[in-house]
Amino acid sequence: MTLLDGKSLSNKIKEEVRVEVEQLKQEKGVTPGLAVVLVGDDAASATYVNSKHKACEKAGIYSEVHKKDSSTTQEELLKLIEKMNNDPKLDGILVQLPVPEHIDTTTVLEAINPLKDVDGFHPYNVGRMVSNLDAFLPATPFGVMRMFQEYNIDLIGKNVCIIGSSDIVGKPMASLLINAKATVEVCNSKTKDLKAHTLRADIVIVAAGRVNLVTADMINEGAIIIDVGINRLDNGKLVGDVDFEGCKDKCSFITPVPGGVGPMTIAMLLKNTVKAAKLREKRK
Ligand SMILES: Nc1nc(=O)c2c([nH]1)NC[C@@H]1CN(c3ccc(C(=O)N[C@@H](CCC(=O)O)C(=O)O)cc3)C=[N+]21
């Protein structure tokens, strides 16, 4: 079994980004800028936002974090986004999800200028991604694709079973894999006999948020396992959706949690922010 080491690959990508940012500054006088908006006081969200901010600083990307309390209205949030859309310092705008229930996620995401949509969640970018056109790709599935590339994992003709059909992981993951000529199946919590599906797969990608959802009996010998789950146990330990210990000797590749897909998400966000900075002229 080979570990898909997202920690070290993400460090390599972040270093590439740092060099690229340096060049942009020197050659074009452009400093890429990212704004992250956090609404409410979810502890996990606060941690991620903090990691994103620190990663930006290390890469030389200007970063601002807007912490709004949970009573913030949708109107206030839309106003802030409009201001950021017009702020020339900002190349990327990210609203950390989930937002509180009284705020409509789609309305908020649609308010972001698609050319600043470094999360790739705006319908404009979603449509372009599905059509295999140049677009901002959602950081998590983009990071998974980058891992396949790094470890020379061929996708053409492979059976891939994705567990989880969310807008931020499952659906975009399926699109990217379809475009890469894989054969893709997307399961969800209503899927009957999940095991029958995973046992047809060369690659299983799990993003369901359920501890031990995937166990060794559910995977083929030599399968590739990508664990996008992040679950905090009562003892404070961080685990994915896969029974790692049970599966590790049966599969050919597996991502650990932590140190797998998570760090890749942040690295690809930085990549997208640099991409957005290069589009500055087009936004004017
Ligand atoms: N608008 C928006 N964009 C996002 O990209 C977004 C979001 N909302 N909401 C929540 C999810 C989750 N997410 C993660 C980022 C980094 C790690 C990460 O760095 N994980 C580390 C450890 C983290 C820890 O120790 O808590 C690891 O897996 O090794 C995980 C998860 C981004 N998300």
Automatic annotation (TrEMBL):
Give one GO biological process term: methionine biosynthetic process
Pfam assignment, any one: THF_DHG_CYH_C
Looking at the keywords, is Amino-acid biosynthesis present? Answer: yes
Positions annotated to bind NADP(+): G164, S165, S166, I230
The annotated pathway is:
One-carbon metabolism; tetrahydrofolate interconversion
Q: What is its EC number?
A: 1.5.1.5, 3.5.4.9
| Subunit details | Homodimer.
Please report which protein family the annotation says this sequence is part of: Belongs to the tetrahydrofolate dehydrogenase/cyclohydrolase family.
Q: What does this protein do?
A: Catalyzes the oxidation of 5,10-methylenetetrahydrofolate to 5,10-methenyltetrahydrofolate and then the hydrolysis of 5,10-methenyltetrahydrofolate to 10-formyltetrahydrofolate.
**Per its record, how is this protein called by name?**
Bifunctional protein FolD
Underlying gene:
folD
